[in-house]
Write a structure and sequence with these properties.
164 residues, ATP synthesis
Length: 164
């Protein structure tokens, strides 16, 4: 089946090398160039991807720092607002306390004035009662029982507001 003839082997080797040389010139060189170009493109794409990843990481870091700064600023503003609100609340409480003290003082003064006025009025009425009773007593005989009856009668004749 398999006969090895030296002439056939020689021509097979010669044909093989001729085809190899032709292929290396015609097909292998363009294939190697295409592979090299493809390899260079992939290498460039990988480098661009690495650079873009580094830029994205830098941007992410910058955004995180900005976010942390914004959060800190928000906390600071919130704290300041709370302090201002507490201060305003304390001021309102103090103002309300002062106003209530003023109202209480005015009410006390008004009560004292009304009290003084009522006492003056009462003194005047008591003086009038005493003068009226003394007048009746002097005009009557100075009997003790009669004096008592006259005073009681005079008191009964007085207006109801004075008796109460």
């Amino acid at each position: 089946m398999l006969n090895l003839e030296p002439g056939m082997i020689l021509w097979t080797w010669i044909t093989f090398f001729i085809v190899l040389i032709i292929l290396s010139k015609v097909a292998l060189k363009p294939m190697l160039t295409a592979i090299k170009n493809r390899e260079d493109g992939i290498r460039e794409d990988l480098e661009k991807a690495r650079q873009q990843r580094e830029e994205a990481e830098a941007l992410l870091q910058k955004h995180q720092e900005m976010l942390a700064g914004a959060e800190e600023e928000a906390r600071k503003l919130l704290k300041e607002n709370q302090q201002m609100a507490e201060k305003a609340r304390q001021e309102l409480i103090e103002k309300a306390r002062q106003e209530s003290e003023k109202l209480l003082e005015r009410a006390k003064e008004e009560i004292d004035q009304q009290k003084e006025s009522a006492l003056a009025s009462l003194k005047a009425e008591v003086a009038d009662l005493a003068v009226g009773a003394a007048e009746k007593i002097i005009l009557q005989t100075l009997d003790k029982d009669k004096q008592k009856a006259i005073v009681e009668e005079y008191i009964k004749t007085m207006p109801k507001s004075v008796n109460n």
